[in-house]
Amino acid sequence: MQKRSFHLRDIILLALIAIIFGVIYYAAAFIYNGLTILLTPTGYGPVANDITMGIWCMAGPLAGFLLRRPGAAFLGEFLGAAVEMFLGDQWGAANLISGAIQGVGTELGFTLTAYKLYNWITVILTSLTATVVSFGWDWFRNGYSHFAPQMLVVMLVVRFISMLVFSGVLVKLIVNLLGRAHVIKE
Predict the structure, then answer these.
(1) 146 vs 15: CA distance, rounded Å
(2) What is the C-alpha radius of gyration for the chain, rounded to an integer number of angstroms?
(3) CA quadruple 38, 40, 43, 49: dihedral sign
(4) What letter does residue 144 receive in the DSSP assignment?
């Protein structure tokens, strides 16, 4: 089996992804807060988390698609969450736990393809696995077990759509554009 270690170029790219997405994650908190305020009177305030979840999970898939190595998706997501924490976001050190769990969820999608497919099937798999794993975490962390079944279905569907759009389709389009611009090898 070929050794698939990270080289200096990979580490620099991971750091850049983490910094860029850490700032994006920090900004997404303002969107989350605004949506929570808007949706709370309708009884759907908790859905704001699910609407924005795809934004908070973009670094992992991007790192996975660009580096194509086991562990890249996890590291991209975890390090992005760490940067967000160091910027002083509202969740503090809990970001590290969320980033690790979201990274594991994304990494699982790449694992299911044995790190051999980097196409739209992988987009769907990483979106699905990140949705399921992060939803399971929020089940315990945010007390989702207390919501009505209809609300849980809405939250799960909204989260999957958010994951598919932001950390799936948008990330794949970014990777495709980088490939067409000859910034990366496809």
Answers:
(1) 39
(2) 16
(3) positive
(4) G
What are the tokens at 77? 């997501």
Contact in structure between 148 and 137 (CB atoms under 8 Å): no
Question: With bands split at pLDDT 50, 70 and 90, how would you rate the model's confidence at 186?
Answer: low
Q: CA torsion 74→78→79→80, rounded to 10°?
A: 110
Sign of the dihedral through C-alpha 164, 116, 134, 174: negative
Residues 41-52 have pLDDT tens digits of: 999 999 999 999
Q: How far is CA 79 from CA 17, 83, 151, in A?
A: 8, 6, 32
- Contact of 70 with 113, CB cutoff 8 Å: no
**Which residues are within 8 A (CB) of 148 and not within 5 positions of it... i.e. 6 or more apart?**
none
Q: State pLDDT tens for residues 126-154.
A: 999 999 999 999 999 988 989 999 999 99
Nearest to 26 by CA among 92, 100, 102: 92
Sign of CA dihedral 150, 153, 157, 159: positive
Q: Could you give phi then psi for residue 90, rounded to 5 degrees?
A: -75, -15
